[in-house]
Design a protein that fits this description.
With about 450 residues, the chain is mainly beta. It has helices spanning about 5-25, 50-55, and strands spanning about 35, 60-65, 65-70, 70-75, 80, 90, 100, 110-120, 120-125, 130-140, 145, 175-185, 185-190, 190-195, 200, 210, 210-215, 215-220, 225-230, 250, 250-255, 255-260, 270-275, 285, 285-290, 290-295, 300-305, 320-325, 325-330, 345-350, 355-360, 365, 370-375, 380-385, 390-395, 400-405, 420-425, 425-430. It is built from 2 helices and 38 strands.
Length: about 450
């Protein structure tokens, strides 16, 4: 971890979290403060799990520097506080997870709310570094989550022993940080690196909505995307009556750096992935804003649906997502059925119609093609983007319609071979911008 990143993620959030914890404690007269150190001295517990077990709802647990070999399972509202300058280390070697906020602990999935995890280093878990399931208002701030997903067998593309409620994990074993059936979580200023995948939002046991993923550095996760929102089949082991995915919606992925992900597996690893893989999948109305997405093993933003089916099968909803104000460069091509003509900034591939997608105010560079759209029908609004010089700015490989007016094609003459071009049918490019868009204030 560089000094620059450590300073940027720690100083202001440390003061912010202390203030928030103080306010929370003041609002809850029954809240207690616990401490943890290895020696168990000065009235402190010698393990984090022991303090969590002793705590009651609303309590604060301060953890001293040191290495704690354990899995921490949280089933009650509390604040787990370390220090990102001198982080306590959770070494989860041989354990399923480093920290598991388990809202599935009691039927019928009432969930858990108001948990804070701040200032830890978490590594070596078999599956996730941090797993949040059936939870609300969880804050994951200024942690270093690395070298998890140790159970992954890349040659077999599987994670032996992963719990049945985690469906369709395949090459990511749940990733470094995993939100499942979670709403209103705040995941910010974490460094997530060297896991199989970075940050994952799924919906096996309920809707995941209204989460904010902001200001994280997600890098060098070798087998999956940096940040992923993926519809998964329902966990019938938990909810036997479920038949289709619950849905992922209204999440914001903002001001993150996501780079060098998916490079250990050909055809893997977008900077941000949005996936509604089969009938009944819903991944809608999410916002991808202000991120820097570069040098990933798939396009910077990759949107896929592969399994739509005719009626009466349930439909697929990959509609109304917004990709705005990002800097996207140096990413790879997409592959298989979603193949793009070369290294690509944004790829939208769907076997079902896609509507209401907005792509605006993005700056592309070092890509062969900036935006690729392939769907049997649908509409995209792509405006105020800056395209890569001498590239294909937009390529429509399907039968949808793209409104692509008011873009900068790298010269005042608009789309042309000496600037950047538009290929395919159903694309409207005129009028275009005579100057480049300034997105520096995004």
């Amino acid at each position: 971890m560089s000094c620059k990143f450590r300073n940027s993620l720690a100083r202001q959030p440390f003061l912010l979290v202390l203030s928030l914890v103080a306010l929370f404690a003041a609002s809850n007269a029954s809240a207690a403060t616990w401490c943890v150190n290895h020696a168990g001295t000065a009235g402190c517990k010698s393990s984090i799990s022991a303090a969590v077990s002793a705590a009651t709802a609303g309590d604060i647990i301060n953890v001293a520097q040191g290495t704690y070999a354990e899995q921490v399972i949280i089933t009650k509202p509390l604040s787990l506080i370390g220090d990102p300058f001198n982080p306590p280390v959770i070494d989860a070697t041989g354990q399923f997870n480093g920290i598991f906020v388990n809202g599935m602990a009691t039927a019928p999935l009432p969930g858990i709310a108001n948990v804070t995890i701040y200032g830890f280093e978490i590594h070596n878990a078999r599956f996730e570094g941090i797993l949040i399931a059936n939870a609300s208002n969880v804050t994951i701030l200024a942690n270093h989550v690395l070298n998890n997903n140790k159970a992954l067998v890349p040659s077999a593309a599987e994670c032996p022993g992963i719990p049945a409620f985690e469906t369709s994990e395949a090459m990511d074993c749940g990733e470094g940080i995993h939100l499942m059936a979670t709403d209103h979580a705040f995941v910010a200023r974490n460094l997530v690196e060297d896991n199989s995948g970075g940050i994952l939002i799924t919906d096996e046991t309920g809707v995941s909505n209204s989460n904010l993923i902001q200001g994280n550095v997600v890098q060098n996760n070798g087998y999956a995307c940096g940040i992923t929102m993926a519809g998964h089949p329902p966990a019938t082991s938990i909810i036997p009556s479920a038949t289709i995915s619950f849905g992922i919606m209204h999440n914001v992925i903002s001001n993150n750096q996501s780079h060098n992900n998916g490079l250990l597996l050909p055809g893997a690893g977008a900077g941000v992935g949005i996936f509604a893989p089969g009938p009944g999948s819903t991944n809608t109305a999410n916002v991808i804003s202000g991120n820097e997405l570069y040098d990933n093993g798939l396009p910077g933003v990759t949107m896929h649906n592969h399994g739509s089916a005719p009626a009466p099968a349930p439909g697929v909803n990959l509609n109304d997502n917004v990709i705005i104000g990002n800097h996207i460069y140096g990413n790879a091509a997409d592959t298989a059925d979603a193949t793009t003509p070369g290294p690509t900034g944004i790829n939208i591939y769907s076997t079902a119609p896609v509507t209401g997608l907005v792509i605006s105010q993005n700056t592309f560079s070092d890509e062969t093609v900036d935006i690729v759209f392939k769907a049997p029908a649908g509409t995209i609004d792509a405006h105020f983007n800056n395209f890569t010089p001498h590239s294909t700015g937009i390529d429509n490989l399907g039968s949808g319609v793209i409104s692509a007016t008011e873009n900068w094609w790298n010269c005042a003459a608009g789309p042309s071979a000496k600037c950047s071009i538009a290929t395919g049918t159903g694309i409207t490019t005129s009028p275009w911008l005579p100057v480049q868009v300034d997105i520096s204030l995004q």
